[in-house]
């Protein structure tokens, strides 16, 4: 398949691996920010192929994983109410709250529906004027434009029964928090290509300058990632602090200007708590005053809800790169995809789920990983 198969060529991958290993004079510590990149690295055995040249730290790049526990509980509270149709993408239904998940609510009779677009939820609202319809808007900058368009569309249609439960978080503030931490070990970042497709690369230049850490924007296929790593290792070995774009077929400096205008219209920046990490200033979005009537937290009065994380779950250390998933005492025993303690084991992009699914296979060869 064009634009996929050519970026999964094991022969070309081996050339890049050899170049990286020859160039590296030490083990460089690199963080990939995106959970999709984490899964590609683990699934294809890239971390094992690179051996002692690179240590990958798996950052907080899975939006499902960093959605705060109290936000999950708010969703559960709303979904449990009579006269509510609660809509979400499928990856949120098994994320555990403090006591249950959305599948449990649906099993007890709650009207919880999986949709494939936020605009599906606005159609459901139009078709059910006697019901309150709520869409769970979760994600980084990548999914935010479509979620923003749902309230724009609802306003144009004059819908008075559609609401958005907003849990959007932003990548650059999270990177700032990681780099500012006294426990930070990151020497270089692989930037999330899909986020930069929307937002461009301009937000990352100030991070490079402030913290003296190179950032290379990368895609998600094996060759994309290896090329991003190759460029990072070159910069690190040469002592250069630069921002580079290794994903030019999808990312431009300016990004998607029309999408950014929609985001500026619908959302305003706010402080956000990140699951397992804590409060990060100015790291999220909430609805702007122009669209406040669509705010599900205000409509249902759930904004006050606060809960405590399980002491047994170490997803916070995983998300901050302080612990590998398989170093957690609960990994693969009391915490599995069937009985998860935290979102990092549930999400299709979670680091714990990636290790559980792929690392137990002992994949060390790219061609075997893709078989």
UniProtKB/TrEMBL annotation:
Q: Per its record, what are the GO molecular function terms?
A: 4 iron, 4 sulfur cluster binding; carbon monoxide binding; iron ion binding
- Name a biological process GO annotation: protein maturation
UniProt entry keywords in alphabetical sequence: Iron, Metal-binding
Name the InterPro entries on file: Hyd_form_HypD, HypD_1, HypD_2_sf
Q: List, alphabetically, the Pfam families matched.
A: HypD
Protein family? Belongs to the HypD family.
> This chain belongs to which protein, by name?
Hydrogenase formation protein HypD
In which organism is this protein found? Mycolicibacterium hodleri
């Amino acid at each position: 398949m064009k634009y996929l198969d050519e970026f999964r060529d094991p022969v070309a991958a081996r050339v890049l691996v050899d170049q990286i290993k020859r160039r590296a004079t030490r083990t460089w510590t690199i963080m990939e920010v995106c959970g999709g990149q984490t899964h590609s690295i683990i699934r294809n055995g890239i971390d094992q192929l690179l051996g002692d040249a690179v240590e990958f730290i798996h950052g907080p790049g899975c939006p499902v994983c960093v959605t705060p526990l109290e936000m999950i509980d708010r969703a559960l509270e709303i979904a449990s109410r009579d006269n509510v149709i609660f809509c979400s993408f499928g990856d949120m239904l098994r994320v555990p709250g403090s006591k249950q998940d959305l599948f449990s609510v649906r099993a007890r009779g709650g009207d919880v529906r999986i949709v494939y677009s936020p605009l599906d939820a606005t159609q459901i609202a139009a078709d059910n004027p006697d019901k309150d319809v709520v869409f769970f808007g979760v994600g980084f900058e990548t999914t935010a434009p479509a979620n923003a368009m749902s309230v724009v569309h609802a306003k144009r249609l004059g819908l008075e029964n559609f609401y958005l439960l907003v849990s959007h978080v932003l990548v650059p503030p999270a990177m700032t928090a990681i780099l500012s931490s006294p426990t930070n070990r990151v020497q270089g970042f692989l930037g999330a290509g899909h986020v930069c497709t929307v937002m461009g690369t301009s937000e990352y230049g100030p991070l490079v300058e402030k913290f003296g850490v190179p950032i290379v924007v990368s895609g998600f296929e094996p060759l994309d990632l290896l090329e991003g790593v190759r460029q990072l290792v070159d910069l690190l070995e040469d002592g250069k602090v630069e921002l580079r774009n290794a994903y030019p077929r999808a990312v431009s400096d300016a990004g998607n200007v029309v999408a950014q205008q929609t985001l500026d219209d619908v959302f305003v920046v706010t402080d956000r708590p990140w699951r397992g990490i804590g409060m990060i200033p100015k790291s999220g979005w909430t609805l702007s005053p122009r669209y406040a009537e669509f705010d599900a937290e205000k409509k249902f009065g759930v904004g006050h809800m606060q809960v405590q994380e399980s002491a047994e779950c170490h997803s916070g250390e995983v998300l901050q790169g302080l612990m590998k998933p398989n170093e957690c005492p609960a990994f693969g025993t009391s915490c599995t995809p069937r009985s998860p303690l935290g979102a990092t084991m549930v999400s299709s992009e979670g680091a714990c789920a990636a290790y559980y699914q792929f690392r137990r296979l002992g994949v060390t060869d790219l061609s075997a990983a893709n078989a």
